[in-house]
Write a structure and sequence with these properties.
The chain has helices spanning 5-20, 27-34, 38-50, 75-82, 107-123, 127-130, 134-141, 143-146, and strands at residues 54-57, 63-66. By secondary structure, it is mainly alpha-helical. Helix 1 packs across helix 4. GO terms for molecular function: DNA binding; DNA-binding transcription factor activity.
């Protein structure tokens, strides 16, 4: 299973806001730190605000911050809310499935069990667990606040060159 970019960016925004604590952060700041599109992040932040995970503050000096404590943000719940479809194979969606062997094989059952196990593992972790290396994350994502980034890390805002 591969998470969508939407889920990936959602988790990254939550990590960034978790590092900031209660301080406000802007979409531009987060986009620069990760080297990703502001437009994509705008959609992610809107979703996070709608879900009650992020509080937004409008106006000059505005931004966003976590709306809940990091230990209350369960990763499994977050990923379930951001993954549009958990149909790993065609037969997971009976409305559109045209699989000829549906019902005669066990693939749907096995993959369904694997998907449930995946979410069960994520349900055992919170955003606080992702923030355990807070000092290192802060040095990588916010080098201006902590001095220079650690050796071997990419400075914030620099995109990886395409090959």
């Amino acid at each position: 299973m591969r998470l969508t970019l939407f889920s990936d960016y959602t988790l990254r925004v939550l990590i960034y806001l978790g590092i900031k604590g209660g301080e406000l952060a802007t979409v531009g700041e987060i986009a620069e730190a990760y080297g990703i599109s502001r437009n994509h992040l705008m959609k992610v932040v809107h979703h996070l605000a709608t879900e009650g995970l992020v509080e937004t503050v409008r106006g000059k000096g505005g931004g966003m911050r976590l709306a809940q404590a990091a230990d209350a943000v369960v990763l499994g719940k977050v990923v379930r809310r951001t993954e549009a479809s958990t149909a790993l194979v065609e037969c997971f969606d009976p409305a559109t499935s045209e699989c000829r062997i549906e019902g005669a094989c066990n693939l749907q059952r096995f993959l369904g069990e694997a998907l449930q196990a995946f979410y069960k593992v994520l349900d055992g972790y919170t955003l606080a667990d992702l923030l355990r290396k807070r000092t290192r994350l802060r040095a990588i994502l916010m080098p201006d606040l902590t001095g220079t980034a650690r050796a071997g890390t990419r400075p914030a805002g620099r995109a990886t060159p395409r090959r």
